[in-house]
Predict the 3D structure of the following.
Amino acid sequence: MRHQDSLIGVCLIAFCAFVLWLTTGFDEVPAMLSQNVPPTFFPRLVLAIIAALSAVLVLKGLRKERQRHERIERSVFVTAAIIAVAGVLLSFVGTFVTLCLVAIVLPLAWGERRKHLIGALALGVPVGVYVVFTLALGVRFPAGRLFEAML
Amino acid sequence: MALPGFEYALPVLTDPFVIGLIVVGTIAGVLVGALPGLSSSMAVALLLPFSLYLDPIPAIALLSALYCAGTFGGSITAILINAPGAPPAAATAFDGYPLAVKGEAGRALGISAVASASGGIFSVLVLLFAAPLLARMAYSFGPPEYFALAVFGLSMLSSISGEQPVKNLIGGCFGLLIATVGVDLTTGIERFTFGVPELYDGIHFIPVLIGLFAVTELLSQAQILGQEKISVTVSAVKLPSWADFKRVKNSILRSSAIGTFIGVLPAEGSTMAAMIGYNEAKRWSDKPEEFGTGSIEGIAGPEAANNAATGGSMVPTLALGIPGSATAAVILGGLQVQGLRPGPYLFEEQPGLLYGIFFAMLLSNLLFLGVGLIGAKVFSRISLVPATLLWPTVFALCFVGAYGLEQSLIDVWVMLAAGLIGFGLKRYGFSPAPIIMGLVLGGLVETSLAQSMIIFDQQWTGFLERPISLVFFALALISVLNAPVRGFIRRRRSR
């Protein structure tokens, strides 16, 4: 079995090919600006370098034994799901409710069972953000479609 | 002899608000450094969006103080729970923890504080003298020289973590590629925007930074949940005795010089400085056999070196606009977001800002010596804050930081995506630091290349007529080929 670097290198070369194809869709440069370096030049140069380095990675990987990685724990997937759902929730229920929910769900998912600490965190995080950032620094956070519809 | 630029820094040093921020930055830095998983890079990244509400001088003074103190703070957990608060403190754990286990945690922390402060102060003094000289040299640089210099800076990524040179270079190029998203400034053509108006200005630096450093770490912490941290009891933390000081003084001096030099090299940061500082302390020691069992030289060597690298790394960052380390890249990004372009002209136009930063770093190094000696006992308890409570708070800061600057939800999504991608990349040996370096340098590299090509009438050979460019290209080539050539020679010898 070959080292994962070979597979990573192949994936990177495929990625470069895909992005290179994307560069073919850039608009034409107006004639009056055509003496400048074209907008495709630099991305393509960088892609060529990444592809060349990826080829080196493939070759080096072929010479190495496969490396065993420790299994990704369930808690990582749960955490990733929580933060992704939080990103979606932001548009609907707004910042403070989302932060409050994250402050409850994330510690629970990580095994915290002390209710008073979770409660303090769920209250403290959104209130802290509101006081420091909204009141003191004037940052306006999204209220969320749900609350905007209600107001 | 008076310190250069003192007159420029005086208004900064007599401003109670700035002094207060430096004190806050120093204490916060030590605290953050003492929390496993929270590095000074991440702390500076998280604080950066909020610092933009301040004027440039207090903002950058705050970030610089956090950088210096955070590097020291990592040693507290390295010594007390054998878990370096940040990668630069990894070498400190080799001897710090064994000494703490012997019941001498206070002595280990004292040595660490003194060595860190000495290394930091030494490097800031070098910064005070070297940065203006380097900036003066850079006056003659045009776009071709800046392009070659940036290429050299990126090539140094191949050596920041010796085992993965190719992956570091790919990471740096990936950062350059991300920097091309948005409207091309010379032609007005959209690139990789997919019709999303928020991407016309490009992918903002801060959300990527927070995602790669903080969200990636959040997921990494989820992977190691439940690992028990066993803390060593700390008695009073004390200054090294005269006998201890005599024993470590050469290690401190040597490591301060090594750390400063390594810090000055583009892209090389505190972690490598600490490792070399440790190895050199062992090589020159009268008692090398004690290393690994609680040698005080084994604590002083890496600690002086990693803090010396902080001042060293600010030399190319401020004088040339080429970051000397990952954290310096974040600070450089902060300067750019503030509308400032580090380089020789900044010395001419804003000496107060630059000397303010230098003296803020000097002050921070003096402050954390006191904070470290007095507060290490308290900080050692903070290191045991449960991850279940710490990381939801960090996530809230990530969200607020990513959203706050442009007040755009797209930035929050960019941050989350960067975090998820960063975790995947980290798992397969890609470090976030090179991507950040590439992203920060992207604008400079592309613009200077485009300007050079116009100067050379689209002829690449024009670079051959620029001696300074040629020197940087040669250095870049040496830096990229260094690892494979050494590997080849090693393989030939072992046959």
Summary: Chain A touches chain B through 65 residues (CB under 8 Å). Chain A is about 70% helix and 0% strand. Residues 74-109 of chain A form the longest helix (36 residues).
